[in-house]
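User: For my dataset I need records formatted as: sequence, then structure tokens, nothing else. Please produce one.
Assistant:
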Amino acid sequence: MIAEFNRGQIVWGVFGLAGSVVCYVLTWLLLQRVATALLGAFNLSATHATWLSWLMVIVMTFSGWRTWKGGQGFENYGESVFSPDLAGSDERVWSRKMDNPGQELRGTAYVLSQLFLSGPLLMLKSLERLKSLIQEEAGLESKLAEMLEVLRVANKWQGLADHPGREREIWLLGRMKQIDFSQYEGNVRFKASVGD
């Protein structure tokens, strides 16, 4: 159980880091083109486009870090600020769309915002996965398997008071997503995951 969990964390961590690198490269290339176009529009030398694009990548990284620290991550389109307000009749929606041609850019802006945040978010998630590896100790695997079997047999929500001295095993099972946690009247409750 521990080896399988660690293997999964390593595989997903490595894929996430590779994805982060790809997203950073795509972000930098896109921002490099934007910086070159902006400098050209103001009749400035495009020699500083590289530095400007690196500055924008640093800003995007800081923004991704703040998003991560705030407990947030990727957004689906419907929950993002780019999602159009579709409330109302079809006629009103159509007239709003015709009055505001910039509304057509919402989807593109959403995709770009997610691309720009993907580099730092994937990197931070992957590093968290790699830091969450469980050190194998003698007898720990059997303690975890025994605790999981006890919780499966019970098949009900329980609290830490029901299993004194087994807090570490319960916490590790939760970390490995073998049990579900819930908050009930200020108390932490847990139960063996459905389908395991």
